[in-house]
Amino acid sequence: MSAYSCTLGGENFRFKTLAEVMAKATPARSGDALAGLIAESDVERVAAQMVLADLPLKAFLAELLIPYEDDEVTRLIVDSHDAAAFAPVSHMTVGQFRDWLLSDAATPAALKALAPGLMPEMAAAVSKLMRNRDLIAVARKITVVTAFRTTLGLEGRIGSRLQPNHPADDLKGIVASTLDGLSYAVGDAVIGINPATDNIPTAMTLLSMLDDLRTRYDIPTQSCVLTHVSNSIEIIERGAPLDLVFQSVAGTEAANEGFGVTLAMLKEAHEAALSLNRGTVGQNVMYFETGQGSALSADAHHGIDQQTLEARAYAVCRAYDPLIVNTVVGFIGPEYLYDGKEIIRAGLEDVFCGKLLGLPMGCDVCYTNHAEADQNDMDVLMTLLANARAQFLIGVPGADDIMLNYQSLSFHDIAYLRNSLGLKAAPEFEAWLEAMGLISDLGQLMENTLATARLLEAAQ
Amino acid sequence: MSDVVKDPWAKLRESTPARIGLGRSGAGLPTGANLDFQFAHARARDAVHSALDVAALEAELAPFEVIRVTSAALDRASYLRRPDLGRKLGAGEAEQLNARPPCDVAFVIADGLSSAAVQAHAAAVVHAASEKLGGLILGPVTIATQARVAIGDEVGAALGARLVVLLVGERPGLTVADSLGAYLTYGPKPGTKDSQRNCLSNIHGKGGMSYDQAAAKIAWLTRAALERGLTGTGLKEESGSLETENAPLIDGA
Questions:
Q1: For the segment B9-26, what is each residue's pLDDT rounded down to a tens digit?
Q2: Is CATH 3.10.20.740 the right assignment for the domain spanning B49-246?
Q3: How many contacts (CB atoms, under 8 Å) link A and B?
């Protein structure tokens, strides 16, 4: 189609499809190069961005990147699109939409009302025209409040997942890491274990242990064992104390098949978890994880760039009213996000797109040892994401996940964000921390050996 | 540390290798814990980026004939960005593998993501395993640099090997940066799926699998694979008890 062309510096650039425009307009990253979709030069990238800026937002309704007949995620996106919510921006080009998002006219209330009217492809498109500071500025304006036993996403707060993994699922070891995290005021979004042995009996044992710990100290939070959705359905049937259903999801039907999951399974699990009625201040019962590159990794990318596919995964998430959504940004490795610069960019894009689409978006600020990244890059990303008001970030003991063999944030880092940026934990959790003597009334960690001793009793 | 009277975390630390009870300086890591972490990360980075000393490895492999090849990835940066290139031989590399008498088993050593693992353990595993493969024709040992697991398919096919045992440096963690993996592939040829291989992992000296254990498993799997004509999900490794060593358990088709 000749619609996708522009002349730049005397050179004419043509793009065959909307998908090609999207891919070539994307800030450079190794995964798009691996897929053979990346712009061939920096100038071609800008040409694609200029073409994209002039496209009407409506173009994404007219030209579906993956056909309706071929893909149930496309069908979900199209069938759930709210034309009335879309109306206020429906006349805009992608470039005008960027300008509007940055303007004072895009108030928190306006952005909240707009979310159901946006297709993920629209969010991805506008993000490609935005610099990092733009992504932060707009994401910060968006508030998404969700709740189970804690209320997450409230102004001036940042949540945290406590991740106490152990390479052999040793219960004492997991309790030790959990208590360590609680002593740093971490765990208000969820206490979530990635099991080393992913089967139903292990998951049930871990869930019971976490539930005992939670009830013993009357901790207002929720727990989760990150096992496959089909396991969670079975666990609910067997009556184990399951708070949240976890699942990794992606932006195409084929990639979700690679995870062994369909939309029908997610619906069944969502309904089953709701039937337990275990939340006290809310009933958001789903926990999703995503990450750029998952579709390419499953050879299920349909020639679409990884950031656009990531945004499509958010359409899957939002259909099930999640408590939290986590982009595991640097976990996948350098063939998808090569270095600290690409990881930082992707983390900001994901939190921006997720929040714009109405999701409680958090991030596992992380990297592997073969990526060109280190803890300094994570320091930058966590500080930026806290300023962008990510719903939650993940903390592990000393930033070292000894089971999954990668580095995330330390419990210390969550404390840093709260101390230095003046952010607080979820209110219910904060009240508990204060009552336990773990934090001051200003939310700062206290040197309280008595409180630590009380916590450690659980491990005896 | 002088102001630490008693460490309430000492007992809990025994239950997990996780970095718990580190203490804090304000909301930051204490200097000692911070440096410990930096050391572990530096060691893992070095394991990924240090070049394999091929000559030293070749010397350790004597008396085996050694063939050196490189993958299609020209350097570490392209290796990390382009997994597809690390799975293929570089242009012209196959020539030195061709026109050899066929063999039952060929060992291929790929640097993978940890040259440190290969340097430390690969020759020892080759020697230990080959001792347990009496009666079989062993081909030359191929050392492949900037290489991933699937490069063994092309190497094995060119050598005319019935089965390839590929040893590879595994993705390093902060605690263990020199862990070796072994992948066995029957009937190696380009395009072989990962589900058609058997894998042993965690061969290293920090609580991992010993050379003898690894050699016993490799030998058991090799004989079972050659007898049954397959590797992968259809072949379950059951060498844990020695009685079963000559009775491979095959499940499925």
A1: 888 898 899 999 999 999
A2: no
A3: 122
